[in-house]
Each structure stands twice: as structure tokens, then as C-alpha cells.
From TrEMBL:
This is Insulinase family protein. Residues 64-199, 525-643 form the Peptidase M16 N-terminal domain. Residues 218-393, 676-853 form the Peptidase M16 C-terminal domain. It holds the Pfam family Peptidase_M16_C. InterPro entries: Metalloenz_LuxS/M16, MPP/UQCRC_Complex, Pept_M16_N, Peptidase_M16_C. GO terms for molecular function: metal ion binding. Belongs to the peptidase M16 family. Keywords: Signal.
Length: 946
């Protein structure tokens, strides 16, 4: 939380085709209560907004949208690594962390507690090369609280930053670097690519998160100087999007931001785009299982000529399963595990990147030759009209989905404001793509994506080479005199948090259900507004149904569904989904399999038809089975390179016990994958994929009559083949005493932890008490465990607990990564917090905060069609009644300190907790012994090691 160190700038990459995309009746000006802020103006897509600038230079953009009783607060400070001084890489990102460490009127740790207590969602911060972003979404009656918090962050944070706060956040950020770069596959590869692209001194050369040496070397005086220059009213923009009265919002913004003092004019950043005239090649070894090829070019800056053309080119080359490189390298030649292509658009210059993860044994040289062939073909021959149409359709959907959620809508507006100088730029942006011709795309590829203008990075398995270790100095325990200063005058009235307005009634998306004659349950939640629809066919055919001798079969069956039906090939399915601009995926979980569709309302009929075809008529063709085997074997190898995944896999094996269906890796084993054939796949599908064993969940802009008219012809004739298998409940998890397991990962910079135990099933009477109790223990950013291990000790970037409650399975888990040298200390602290949770009831303030964090955030948790579908699909899979979601407010509201304590004592037993630690055993075993934990060493398959 409070970081997004290397996140590439997410933004629109192709055209929204306007014709038919929006309801004709959407107004371009003031909207009725339930309509979104999106409409059309002058024939173009438009976002209704109002922009004003206060006398001190602070910018405010209002986007009024009354669909839900929510307001998104999106504050951009126009400073990022592009503004960092030499030798201070990671400064902007570290400053982002410091913004949450407390301000003059909001003591350290209280900021997030206020957000939790108000029912906030989407609360975080992020940094990219060009800006730093601070955001949360609150119920609309907390408008004034949100403005009070944001103003204090911007205006009075520097008052409370001292050497103690700085040292703590330096630890946290360095833990984030270890987790996000050094202990993540290919993390150092991406960093090496940017260092090869950009010369010394260029602000984009280093990763956003910076180096250990630079992070540790930042001084308090540097922090103050950065604040004086960049964190001023005249260098920030706030977007409010959602349910508010504009007149009231303007008055409150003036009240809270109007007295902030502007700073000096921000220094202008002028950096020429670097020019590469000869191909640069480098080899990077990393602790990875699969080799990877990266090709990267400097390309035009965001919104400059050529930027849109390269967005389209990226889609044509690698924009999904229908793209050229996916078809060639993954489907046809089976040389690649995955292909990603993107135009990462930034203000000073952009980067076009092709990334191909190779299958085991595949040659990167051969892959590179094939990629070069496709690049040459695209440079010489324009893309087809069908390819152009697919790109436009895809982005049509992506854009509207981004506008569906007020948090992402606010961020989109802020992005246009900074990058284009116009918060309403969406129509002009999309017009760029509408005007593109295939010939223009081809010509742009020929100009910019030349072999002698690129960087080639070959990532290969081997030793990870990191810079020399930078010591973590002892953290100061007390600030020295004179460390604090103020940029803005003290205003005593700000010392008290404002009260809330009268809340609107708490309502959640309702759903209705009907059953087809064949037994298929249909659950429907109508959501008017944007013309979007999401659907999920949920089948009780998850990992728990795997035969004992065929682990991974449920996942294999689900993965095969998009790979061909009796009337469509895998390529035809991919092209059909791309033509609709829709997403269509299938996967299996522990208890269920799901086929998911999301797209425009106009594509709902064809999208549901595709979904039905996948579920009812899978081909299980021999060539696709063999290709899927190779895909899954490679994915199995990849789990060994990702410490958190490995920790979870071993934890499941140890806690469920050998022979339990959920003990095995969800992918299966090498032997079980190789043994799969069409007979096994079809037999599982015939037994499990049956209408009486399934539910179709649909949310979006469809009425019940419209949905019935679509569903009956598609699913009404579905009949299960043969007799349904007798119901066989999952065996219980093996009861086991506490146990400590180490999986050796020599040289790992962090330890990935999975601390697990059997847990309650869904539907237990005290489920709400459990969730509120867990929110206090480890479920929230402000929880006891995360606060102690991250904010107080600086051991981790984040560590969280949770209960997974299914129909026939339940598990409690604490998961996260900690610095290697403090693994033992972190576990000791974790146990203290667990014991404390069981020792006595929560105080009134803590109970109120964590209970409200569950209760008042409910509308924000169901703010998109995908979220609504996910909620009702999970509800059905867990065997809960349709009304369980609507009943949540009453259940959360009834939780007391006594009932939460009872839940902790009943469902949180330290004597049953199993610790799995993936890290360097030479460093871990002495620490574990020192805290009284005798550890056994297992391999990646859960087998004993010496």
C-alpha cells in the first residue's frame, strides 16, 4: 500500500468507436440522479466536468456523478522521478510514503484509520515517472472529512516529518524494492532495460523506486527542499468525482485549500529524447525458470505524433490471444509461454516494449527472429481493417469500464489534465485513433521500430547479480531539536476532524433469481448507467472435485474451454471476442470453475453466445491438449520462481495433508499433466458441467425480460450427459499441531511467509464477527500485525491476514514478505498480536473503526458490474442464499467487542498454525531456533530435504 513503484503509466491505447456505444439519451449537461458523468457532446464522447483554479494556484476539477453515494478524491502532485536531482533516485516515491506518515493535524497512523472508520475504499498512493497520486473513495456524506484529510496531507505533512519518520519509511521502501524487484522474477531485468535505454542523468533511467543506496542516502534536508519546491498549492490538482453538490464542494475546497501558500514556480524539465543509433544488447541472469526476451525502443511522447499509431501497433502485435505474436509464438510454434506488447506513454518520451517469456528449451534467438519477421511484415504491409476494428472495439470497452468506477474515472480526468492540459481531452484523444489509417500505423512502425534503434535484453536463469548490500543503520528513536518546520501557517480550527453529513441509506445491489427448466440457476442484478454487462457461468467443478489420481484435472478442463469448441477453433474464439472488444476467460478455483465475460451491452448477445459455446460444446482437440500441457508444465515451473506462490503451495500441501484434493498444486504435478488425455477431460466435463450444477450470474444494463430472451435460447436446451455423480463432500483438512517449515531459496533478499490453519466454512453464524475481528488483527492496512511489522518496525512492505470461507473448505492465513534478517523477530511479533487478539476485547474506538471499515465500505465494494458478479457468483458457489449480500449490513452492525473476542478464541488457535517460510535457510534456521521454533526443511514439492 501507499506505493506503486514501477507501475507503467496506464492509459488509453486505442480508439473508442462512438457509434452505438452510448445510450442516445445520455445528456451532455446536467444529469438526472442516477446517470453517470459520461455522455456525448458535439458527436464525441465527453465527461461532464468543471475546472477552476484558486487564487493560490490550486486546481480543482469537479465530475458530478450520482450513480452511487460515493465520492472519489484523486490528488495529483505534478512531481515524479522526472523532477528528481542527480543521486536521488526513488525520491518522489519515498516522498509518497512520507505523505501518509502523519501531518500537523492528523497524527501518525491516524490518516488511514480515519479512512477505514469512514468506510473508505481504494485508498492508496502511486508514483510514476511524471506524477505522484494520492487517492481514496469515501461515502458521499464524508465529503468534508475527505477534503480535511487531503488538505492536511498537502499543506501540513512536512510539519511532522522528522528523522524517525524518514528512517521508518526508508526501511519500508527498501522492503518494497526487495519484494517488487529483487524477489520478483524479471524485476532486475526490467530495471536493466531502462538503464540501457536511458543515459546517466536522464530522469527515466532508474526505476521509479530507486536504488538502495539512493533511498538510504536521502536526508531530512532533502525532504524539506522537495516539499518547498513541489508540494505546494500551485503544483497540485484535486479531482472530485461522484455524488456531491458542486456548490458545497467548491465552498469546502476553498475552506480547506484556499489558505495554502503557493511555492516558487516549479522548475521546467526539458530533456531531449535519447537517440539510439546502434542496437544495444545485454544478458541479465536472474533466479528464474524461464528465459525472456525484451525488445525496447524510444518512441514519441504521450499525445505526440506517432503515439496513437504505436498504440494500435501494440494491439496488433500482442494485444491478446487474437494478436499476431500470440498466434505465432504461443499457439502455432509453441515457443512462448506469454507475449506482451505495449506503448508506455510518458511526458518526456515513451517506450515501446515487446516481452516474450520462452517455453522451457525454446531458443531466444529463434523467438527474436520470428518477432523481427512480424515487425518487418507490419512495417511493410498495413494491418487489416479487421485488426484495426479489433483494437478499436477492445478500447471502446476498456474506456467505458474505466469510467464505470468513480475512482478510475477521477484518475483518468487527472491524467488528461496533466498530460494534455485539458481534463476534457477524452474526445480529442479518441479522435486521434478514429483518424488513423492502416497505412499510417505501418509507416510509424517502419520509422520508429528499427533494429538499430533498440535495446535487446536476454533474461536467462542463473545467479542474480545485485549491487553491494547497503546496510540498514539503526533507526533513531527520537527526533532531534529543530528537525521540523512549516510551510503553511498554523490554523487551530483544523485540529478537529469535521463531522459527517447525514448519511444516505445503505443500499447494496439487489439481485433476482430464476431457474430454467433444466435446473440452471440464473442470478440477475440490473445496473443502469453505462451500457456495460458482465456475466459469469459458475460450475461446481473446482479443484476439490479432482480425482485422487489426477490432480489439476479441474483446472486443465477449464483452461481447455476457450481452446476450441465443436464449431470454433481457438483462434476463431479469440478473434470473435476481440471483435466484440470483450474479455472471455475460464479458470477453476478450489470449489468452482468460472467462465467470465465482460463487454458492452451491445455485445451481450454475442458474448453470452460465445460463453455458452465454450461451456456446452468443448472440443478437447488433441493438438490443443498437447499445447495446453506444455503451457501448464511451464506454469508449474514458474511457481517455483515466485516465493509467495511457492509458500502458498507448500502451505496447502502441509495443512491439508497428502491425498486431500486441495493439498496438490492447482496445476497438478508434472506426471498428472503429462497423463491427461481427451478421455479424462471429457469425462470430468460430462460429470461436472451440468445445468443443475451451475449458475449464470449477470450484472449490468440489462432488464430481466432482456436477459431471459438471451438466456433461454442459449442455455435452455443444455442437458447433462449421463447420470450425475453422487455428491461426495470434501474430506476435512488434516488436524495437525503447530509446525514450522522452511523451503530453501539461497540468497533470497526476503522471506515469503504463509502462516495457515484450517478455518470455518461459509455460512457459520459468526462469520461477520470473524471478519470484523480479522480486520483488526491483519485484514486492514491499519491492522495490528501490519502496523507493528511495517509502520513500527519497518520489517515489511505489507503483511495481511484473512479467512477463506467456502462451501466445503475454510482456511485462515497470514501472508506477506519480510526482510530476511528479521524473519524470526517478525514471527515473534506476529504471535504477540495473535495472543493479544485472543486475550481481551477490543476497545470501543478500535471496534468502531474496524466494524465501520467492513460495514460502511460495502457500497464501494460493489461499484462495478465485475464486482457485483463476483460477489453473487462467490455467494452461490459457497452455498449461501441469494439474500446473504443484502443481509451484510445488519450482520456487521450487530458485531460487538464480546462477539469478536469469542470469534478470535474459537477460530484463531495459535496451537494449530503452520508456518511456511520460503527464503535462505542458512539465515532462517538460526533465527527460528532462537525463538523456539524447530523447523523442518522441505523442497518445492513438500518433500523432506536434508
Amino acid at each position: 500500500m501507499h506505493a506503486s513503484s514501477s507501475r507503467r503509466l496506464a492509459r488509453l491505447t486505442a480508439l473508442l468507436a462512438l457509434a452505438g456505444a452510448l445510450h442516445a439519451g445520455l445528456p451532455a449537461r446536467a444529469a438526472p440522479a442516477a446517470t453517470p458523468a459520461v455522455g456525448t457532446a458535439a458527436g464525441r464522447l465527453a465527461i461532464r466536468h468543471e475546472k477552476l483554479t484558486l487564487a493560490n494556484g490550486f486546481e480543482l476539477i469537479l465530475v458530478e456523478d450520482h450513480r452511487l453515494p460515493l465520492v472519489a478524491f484523486n490528488l495529483w502532485v505534478h512531481a515524479g522521478p522526472r523532477n528528481e536531482a542527480a543521486g536521488q533516485t526513488g525520491f518522489a516515491h519515498l516522498f509518497e510514503h512520507l505523505m501518509f506518515a502523519g501531518s500537523r493535524h492528523v497524527p501518525r497512523g491516524r490518516f488511514d484509520q480515519y479512512v477505514d472508520a469512514a468506510g473508505g475504499t481504494d485508498s492508496n498512493g502511486s508514483t510514476n515517472f511524471d506524477r505522484t497520486n494520492y487517492f481514496f473513495t469515501l461515502p458521499s456524506h464524508q465529503l468534508e472529512l475527505g477534503l480535511w484529510l487531503k488538505a492536511d496531507m498537502l499543506g501540513w505533512m512536512i510539519d511532522e516529518v522528522d528523522s524517525v519518520a524518514l528512517a521508518n519509511q526508508q526501511d519500508v521502501v527498501r522492503n518494497e524494492r526487495r519484494q517488487s524487484f529483487e524477489n520478483r522474477p524479471y524485476g532486475i531485468v526490467e530495471e536493466a532495460m531502462y538503464q540501457a535505454l536511458y543515459p546517466e542523468g536522464h530522469p527515466y533511467r532508474a526505476a521509479v523506486i530507486g536504488s538502495h543506496a539512493d533511498i538510504q542516502g536521502i536526508k531530512l534536508a532533502d525532504v524539506k527542499a522537495f516539499a518547498r519546491t513541489y508540494y505546494r498549492s500551485n503544483n497540485a490538482t484535486l479531482v472530485l468525482a461522484g455524488d456531491f453538490d458542486p456548490r458545497q464542494a467548491k465552498a469546502l475546497v476553498q475552506k480547506y485549500f484556499g489558505s495554502l501558500k503557493p511555492g516558487p514556480r516549479v522548475p521546467e524539465v526539458k530533456v531531449a529524447m535519447p537517440e539510439i543509433t546502434k542496437e544495444r544488447r545485454l544478458v541479465v541472469t536472474d533466479r528464474i525458470e524461464l528465459s525472456r526476451l525484451d525488445l525496447a525502443w524510444h518512441t514519441p511522447a504521450m499525445f505526440a505524433a506517432g503515439d496513437a499509431e504505436l498504440d494500435i501497433a501494440a494491439h496488433v502485435l500482442g494485444g491478446g490471444k487474437a494478436s499476431r505474436l500470440y498466434g505465432l509464438l504461443v499457439r502455432d510454434r509453441q515457443l512462448a509461454q506469454s507475449v506482451e506488447v505495449g506503448q508506455s506513454s510518458q511526458s518526456l518520451s515513451s517506450v515501446f516494449n515487446i516481452e516474450v517469456v520462452a517455453r522451457p528449451g525454446a531458443s531466444l534467438d529463434e523467438i527474436e527472429t520470428l518477432v523481427d519477421g512480424e515487425l518487418a511484415r507490419l512495417a511493410a504491409t498495413p494491418p487489416s481493417e479487421a485488426e484495426m476494428a479489433q483494437a478499436r472495439a477492445t478500447i471502446q470497452t476498456q474506456l467505458l469500464q474505466r469510467m464505470e468506477k468513480v475512482a478510475s474515472l477521477a484518475d483518468l480526468v487527472n491524467s488528461y489534465n496533466q498530460m494534455a492540459g485539458d481534463p476534457g481531452y477524452v474526445g480529442k484523444d479518441l479522435a486521434r485513433y478514429a483518424q488513423l489509417t492502416p497505412a499510417a500505423v505501418s509507416a510509424t512502425v517502419a520509422r520508429w521500430l528499427q533494429k538499430d534503434r533498440r535495446v535487446v535484453v536476454l533474461a536467462q536463469p542463473g545467479e542474480q547479480v545485485l549491487p553491494p548490500e547497503v546496510a540498514t543503520p539503526p533507526a533513531p528513536t527520537k527526533a532531534a531539536k529543530g528537525e521540523r518546520e512549516s510551510l503553511n501557517a498554523l490554523e487551530a480550527w483544523r485540529g478537529k476532524a469535521p463531522g459527517a453529513a447525514r448519511p444516505k441509506p445503505l443500499t447494496l445491489p439487489a439481485a433476482q433469481s430464476f431457474t430454467l427448466a433444466n435446473g440452471l440457476t440464473v442470478i440477475h442484478s440490473q445496473k443502469a448507467g453505462l451500457p456495460l454487462v458482465s456475466a459469469s457461468l459458475v460450475v461446481r467443478a473446482g479443484q476439490g472435485a479432482d480425482p485422487a489420481d489426477r490432480p489439476g484435472l479441474a483446472g486443465f478442463v477449464a483452461a481447455m474451454l476457450p481452446e476450441g469448441t465443436t464449431t470454433r477453433s481457438a483462434q476463431q474464439i479469440a478473434e470473435a471476442a476481440a471483435a466484440l472488444g470483450a474479455t472471455l476467460t475460464a479458470e477453476a478455483g478450489s470449489e468452482e470453475a468460472r467462465i467470465d465475460f465482460s463487454g458492452l451491452k451491445a455485445s451481450a448477445s454475442e458474448g453470452l453466445s460465445l460463453l455458452a459455446d465454450l461451456a456446452l460444446h468443448p472440443a478437447f482437440a488433441a493438438p490443443e491438449i498437447e499445447r495446453q500441457k506444455a503451457q501448464r508444465l511451464a506454469a508449474l515451473a514458474q511457481t517455483r520462481e515466485q516465493a509467495p506462490l511457492l509458500a502458498n503451495a507448500v502451505a496447502n500441501r502441509v495443512s491439508y495433508g497428502e491425498g486431500h484434493p486441495l493439498a496438490a498444486n492447482a496445476l497438478g504435478s508434472e506426471a498428472s499433466i503429462r497423463a491427461v488425455d481427451a478421455t479424462a477431460l471429457r469425462g470430468f466435463w460430462q460429470a461436472r458441467y451440468r445445468p443443475e450444477n451451475a449458475a449464470l450470474v449477470v450484472a449490468g444494463d440489462l432488464g430481466e425480460a432482456e436477459l431471459r430472451a438471451l438466456v433461454e435460447p442459449l442455455f435452455g436446451a443444455w442437458k447433462g450427459e449421463g447420470a450425475a455423480p453422487a455428491a461426495a463432500p470434501l474430506p476435512p483438512a488434516r488436524p495437525i499441531a503447530a509446525r514450522t517449515v522452511v523451503v530453501d531459496k539461497p540468497g533470497a533478499p526476503q522471506t515469503a511467509l504463509a502462516v495457515v490453519a484450517p478455518g470455518p466454512f461459509a455460512g457459520v453464524p459468526d462469520a461477520a464477527d470473524i471478519k470484523v475481528m480479522n480486520a483488526a488483527l491483519g485484514g486492514l492496512f491499519t491492522s495490528r500485525i501490519n502496523t507493528q511489522l511495517r509502520e513500527v518496525k519497518g520489517y515489511t512492505y505489507g503483511i495481511y491476514s484473512g479467512y477463506a470461507m467456502g462451501r466445503e473448505r475454510g482456511q485462515f492465513g497470514i501472508r506477506g514478505s519480510v526482510r530476511t534478517d528479521v524473519t524470526g523477530a517478525a514471527l515473534a511479533d506476529m504471535w504477540k498480536e495473535i495472543d493479544g487478539m485472543r486475550a481481551k476485547p477490543m476497545g470501543a474506538a478500535e471496534l468502531g473503526r474496524v466494524r465501520n471499515a467492513q460495514l460502511l465500505s460495502l457500497p464501494g465494494r460493489f461499484d462495478t458490474n465485475v464486482a457485483v458478479v463476483g460477489g453473487y457468483a462467490g455467494n452461490w458457489s459457497a452455498g449461501q442464499p441469494l439474500g446473504a449480500i443484502a443481509a451484510l449490513p445488519a450482520k456487521y452492525g450487530a458485531v460487538t467487542a464480546a462477539t469478536a473476542l469469542k470469534a478470535a478464541r474459537r477460530h484463531l488457535d495459535p496451537a494449530r498454525l503452520i508456518v511456511v517460510a520460503v527464503g535462505d535457510k542458512a539465515k532462517l534456521l538460526p533465527q527460528l531456533e532462537a525463538i523456539g521454533r524447530k523447523a523442518e526443511v522441505l523442497d518445492a514439492d513438500g518433500k523432506p530435504q536434508p
